Amino acid sequence: MSFAGSTRRITSWLAPAARRNPYFAIIIWGMIAPILLLVTWAVVTVWTAVFIAVIVTTPLGWLAGVYRLARRQQRKGKAVQDAQLAALQAVTADPSSAAAPGRGTLMG
């Protein structure tokens, strides 16, 4: 739960309805989105404060904090690994399949 993540989820949830009708867009972006964002940000703030209080005051909280940091690092590492794999696959892709028949090949 983060401010950026909750904002991204709310705006992606409201955007299709706002695109359908300009009058809905005014209502959605002028009234509904700010209210939803304020409520969500209040929940995220309370969640973060409680989580920090638990981490500071209990040994179980210390373990939970370490676990969260380890999981975050694991997710970041997986994202980097996936990006490297995609780049490697793009570089090692068969060049003859990308070229049009008779063009750009030694045989054509």
Describe it for me?
The protein is an all-alpha fold and 108 residues long. The protein has a domain at 1-61. The protein is 84% helix and 0% strand. It is built from four helices and no strands. The chain has helices at residues 3-20, 22-57, 59-91, 95-98. Helix 1 packs antiparallel against helix 2 and helix 2 (22-57) packs across helix 3. The longest helix is centred in the middle third of the chain and has 36 residues, at 22-57. It is flat, with a radius of gyration of 24 Å. The protein starts with a helix and ends in a 10-residue tail after the last helix.
Task: Based on the model shown, name its key terms.
single chain, mainly alpha, 108 residues
Question: Helices and strands in order, then pairings?
Answer:
Layout: H1 3-20, H2 22-57, H3 59-91, H4 95-98
Helix pairs in contact: 1-2, 2-3
Order of helices and strands: HHHH
Number of separate strands: 0
Query: How many H/I helical runs?
Result: 4
Give the CA-based shape.
flat
- Identify low-pLDDT runs: none
**Alpha carbon gap, first and last residue:** 56 Å
The biggest sheet amounts to: none
* C-alpha Rg (nearest Å): 24 Å
Helix content: over 70%
The share of residues in extended strands comes to: under 5%
Q: Give the overall pLDDT as a whole number.
A: 83
Structural class: mainly alpha
Give a nutshell description of this structure.
The chain is mainly α and 108 residues long.
